[in-house]
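seq/struct pair 1
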Amino acid sequence: MRVDEGWDGFWAQAPTAAESVFWDAPPEQVAARHLALFEPYLTGDLPLVDAGCGNGTQTRHLGERHGVVVGVDLSPAAVELARRRPGGAEFEVLDLADGAAVAAFHERRGDCHVYLRGVLHQAPPEERARIVDGVATLLGAAGRGFVVEPASAARETLAGLMRRPGGPPPSLAAVFAHGISPMEMPDEAVPALFAERGLAVLDAGRAPLATTVRDPEGTRVELPSSWLVVGRTG
């Protein structure tokens, strides 16, 4: 299994204080908003996989509202951190780009629903297809995926944060310090990746993606984002 040193190093050193990680906003402002959009598609009693779960903040919220919820991440340090906190979710190390590992997970768990938040835009372009292949494997015939990614317009918001007179917010600076940086990804690239794998876009829209950073007036900074629900219809 490939372990990304940047992500594992980030999570090994990530502070545990509330809202100290850039994208670790309260689940009421992240997963709860997304679940309201995704829940109509959560048919049957399939497990829900939070893919790229990090420290599990959003996973635990999902675990309180769905049956079986499994948070997976390619970083062992992230999974170890997630397991330390109480909550109604399971956690496993899983690299979505590792086809054999994903197939083995699907063999054990069966078809799953998948929640994929902000993963693709952080991945190198050559790896995105393998990640989407992994999602398609997890979904199988019956699962539904909720995919949310920062929109192209989010680039300006991030650039503004990096240009702050006192320097970028510490939570954002920590991301770049570990060699993790958002990649260029046109909005239309996300649905195209899933369509190429025979997955239909069942619903789509725009919604703000909350961060832990606040502007000088104390208002939480939110990134423009696009979301879609995908699955097989045949």
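seq/struct pair 2
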Amino acid sequence: MTSPADHLPTLRSGRWFAALPADLAQALMARAELRSLAPAQALFLRGDAPCGLYAVVRGAIDISGVGGQSDKARASLLTRLEAPAWFGEIALFDGSVRTHDAHAATQATLLHVPQEPLLAHLARHPQHWHALALLLTDKLRTALVAMEEMALLPAPQRVARRLALMAEGYGQWTDAGRSRRVIALSQEELSLMLALSRQTINQILKDLQARGLLQVHRGEIEVCDLLALRAAGG
């Protein structure tokens, strides 16, 4: 297994880590431990005690939940986190239990900064809470926009907009022009993410494919025209 320092180029490709005060970035790296997860392996589950801050440096992590009565329980996929995303900060602030499940969507490598050493550092350097608050508020902005889209946008626009955002790394890269051509996401996973039926997702993707905006492959969506896909999202 590599060392946390080997993943610094990946971390620095993300806006949040790249903008950190140097002493906070060094403190995170000094306390970081590497974790490796197999596909579908749980990192933590809803109700688990807080365990610290994480960064995805390879692979992907799904944040999901299940709700409703046991005989009618419904699953939801809130988001898929890929490098260089950081997560887990909510429980750092309130010390309460995990709000959702986190599983590896693929073989994944994470940096883990344990809760207690990080809290001890923040007690000695309270000015560093501000940077962590920015990580939290960025997630809040994204969540509020997603809620608004769920309420106001028709399904085709929601699908196009979400795929464009995923292709652009949710705007988290330091290089604003960077994008990924292939999104590792199945139609079933996209339906869970957007609370749409599998049939509806299939119909919308077929239409986008017929217009030359993307190609649908098994377990993947290839973006052929990102500008047009973004425009289709309104």
